[in-house]
Amino acid sequence: MPEKMRQKAQILDKEGIRRALVRIAHEIIERNKGTEKIALIGIQRRGVPLANRLSGYIREIENKIIPVGILDITLYRDDITTLAHQPILRRTEVPFPVKNQKVILIDDVIYTGRTVRSAMDAIMDLGRPNLIELAVLVDRGHRELPIRADYVGKSTPTSSKEIVEVRLQETDGQEGVFILGEG
Amino acid sequence: MINRKNLIGLQHFDPPEIELILDTAVAMKEIVSRPIRKVPTLRGRTVMNLFYEPSTRTRTSFELAAKFLNADVINISSSASSVVKGESLKDTVRTLEAMGTDIVIIRHPMAGAANLLAGWTGAAVINAGDGAHEHPTQGLLDMFTVREKKGALEGLKIAIIGDILHSRVARSDIWGFLKMGARVSVCGPATMLPIGIERTGVDVYCNVDKALEDADVIIMLRIQLERQKAGLFPSLREYARLFGLNRERLSLAKKDALVMHPGPMNKGVEISGEVADSLQSVINEQVTNGVAVRMAVLYLLIGGGDA
Questions:
Q1: Closest residue of A to B4, CA-based?
Q2: Which member of A45, A118, B188, B284 lies 3.0 to 4.6 Å from A73 by CB, making a disulfide possible if both were Cys?
Q3: How confident is the model at residue A3, as a pLDDT?
């Protein structure tokens, strides 16, 4: 990462994040014709608060409680043995069987698609879900694998030199999605 | 972050490094509790168990840890290898390294063997017990077990009782618990307390009742019958009477004190069967936690850009 990254643009503010998540909540219910057998799994770290929020919005709309799990994909990364330092392992906690469930993976940003590939492997090791869908707050392009998101908060074309930073109250103490870049 | 290739002893580890290993083991324990206990992390890596002393639980524990992480595991015990033909440790390791080994786990009767080996090989080296020096993964799993039960290690009173002189477990526990802010007492027959042990910062007792007073954790050490030919105490019966942990003695410690033992136990000698199987005993959990802690160590040591 280059040393001086400057904030170039804000693509979502607090209200924008809320609206995007509420819309995704509606889309999830619509596409699955209700909430039966739906479980949300947030990818560590920022997918976790997003999954909790989505579960909350779905409950407000449908008055149904949607279980939420936490997934750490570190051990499934395809670059794990080539990194200079081992990333910190965070906890995985999926307190329900994924077998025969409709699992919706939640992450903050989709970029190369490699995280999602790892997450799908990790979920398969927990059991065989009926289907897996993917919801992200931001799609920034540059996929390296044949993977796409089913629910997208905002699509933003970026340069691969830029960084998309999602800040959430729960993990960062503030709300917003920003594009950082050089110069 | 762990900037090391080897785990030789806890004496030279910093508290944040120990903390990281224990935190990582929490995530590993979740994997051990799954129906399918397998993650692909060390796929294509080779782990070698090189054991110059008999061992069941440590070797099996390392083997399971490596297998849960999808590494290939080779077990070599000295009795069934070229060692009996007189091959030196150095030559054995060079040969095995030439076959492509990423991690060597070594147990050896001589203190310092793991350290020597680390200087000879490019593979990562984990000490699984070297003479009376250290057994770091046992120290880590003891700390993990206590932290899981008590929430934190700082300020706890840990009593380690038995043959401190010959015990590598005691040394790893002493270094580890002291670094994490616990108070450590050691107790045993005077012939089994190493001279100068108090310089590590532990309290030394010859009276077991005093050592147990207000203890939060009691770690009983195995009387190594195979090392007792030197006559360091008169008889096993006397040892059991003066130093063995029974129910009356246990009541001197805190009400919720944990009873631990690195195994294998001599029930009726250092620990009564009643205490070993009591609700305060976490001896079986130590074994389960051992696998998670060893997975954490394998994971943290095998990182590094030259793969």
A1: A85
A2: A118
A3: 62
3-state secondary structure chain B: CCCCCCECCHHHCCHHHHHHHHHHHHHHHHHHCCCCCCCCCCCCCEEEEEECCCCCHHHHHHHHHHHHCCCEEEEEEHHHCHHHHCCCHHHHHHHHHHCCCCEEEEEECCCCHHHHHHHHCCCEEEEEEECCCCCHHHHHHHHHHHHHHHCCCCCCEEEEECCCCCCHHHHHHHHHHHHCCCEEEEECCHHHCCCCHHHHCCEEECCHHHHHCCCCEEEECCCCHHHHHHCCCCCHHHHHHHHCECHHHHCCCCCCCEEECCCCCCECCCECHHHHCCCCECHHHHHHHHHHHHHHHHHHHHCCCCC
CA dihedral angle for residue B249, residue B255, residue B256, residue B261, rounded to 10 degrees? 0
Model's pTM, two decimal places?
0.92
- For A90, the closest of B2, B27, B44 (CB atoms) is B27
State pLDDT tens for residues B201-213: 999 999 999 999 9
Contact A76, B42 (CB under 8 A): no
d(CA B214, CA B157): 7
Please report residues of A whose CB lies closer than 8 A to that of B38.
Answer: 125
* A81 vs B2, B27, B307: nearest CB: B307
Question: Does B226 reach chain A within 8 Å, measured CB to CB?
Answer: no
The pLDDT of residue B307:
36
Say whether residue A72 is in contact with chain B using an 8 A CB cutoff.
Answer: yes
Distance of CA B112 to the CA centre of its chain: 16
What ipTM did this prediction achieve?
Answer: 0.85
CB A91 to CB B299 under 8 A? no
| Closest chain B C-alpha to A95 CA, distance in angstroms | 11
- At B232-264, the pLDDT tens digits run 888 899 999 999 999 999 999 999 999 999 999
Check whether A50 has a pLDDT greater than 80: yes
The pLDDT of residue B305 is 41
Q: Tell me which chain A residues have a C-beta less than 8 angstroms from the C-beta of B36.
A: 125-126
Contact residues on chain A for B44, CB-CB shorter than 8 A: 81
Q: Is B206 on the interface with A (CB under 8 A)?
A: no
Amino acid at B46: T
Selected residue of A76, A79, A81, A90 to mutate for chain B interface (largest B Cβ count, 10 A)? A81
The candidate with the shortest Cα–Cα distance to A35, out of A102, A106, A120, A123, is A102
Q: Is A131 on the interface with B (CB under 8 A)?
A: no
